[in-house]
Amino acid sequence: MGKTIMIVDDSASLRQVVGIALKGAGYDVIEASDGKDALAKLTGQKIHLIVSDVNMPNMDGITLVQEVKKLPQYRFTPIMMLTTETESDKKAQGKAAGAKAWLVKPFQPPTLLDAVSKLVLP
């Protein structure tokens, strides 16, 4: 069985680009359109990594990290932020919330896959 990565982004095209890169590397992918959608899709299945945007409607990425960390089944799931945000205070907020990595858009798929391979749960 493959490893499952959840992509959370309000941009369908970005989810598609990330999804293609991850599937090409052998990962299974679950897509969510924002933080609320992501939480609704965390139904007990094993998620090896969450890749989330920061700025999204309904629930932003940093709030999502905080919420995921409250869930006993997912509190150890690594979360990587994938965002256009480069502000250090946002990064600090993400880190404080529990995000493990911060990748800035636009990104190259090899860079993404390298970061993913370092973070994904065994």
UniProtKB/TrEMBL annotation:
GO terms for biological process: phosphorelay signal transduction system. PROSITE patterns: RESPONSE_REGULATORY. The keyword Phosphoprotein applies. This is Response regulator. It holds the Pfam family Response_reg. The lineage of its organism: Bacteria, Pseudomonadati, Pseudomonadota, Gammaproteobacteria, Chromatiales. Keywords: Phosphoprotein. SMART domains: REC (SM00448). InterPro entries: Bact_response_regulator (IPR050595), CheY-like_superfamily (IPR011006), Sig_transdc_resp-reg_receiver (IPR001789). Residues 4-120 form the Response regulatory domain. SUPFAM superfamilies: CheY-like. The modification 4-aspartylphosphate is found at residue 53.
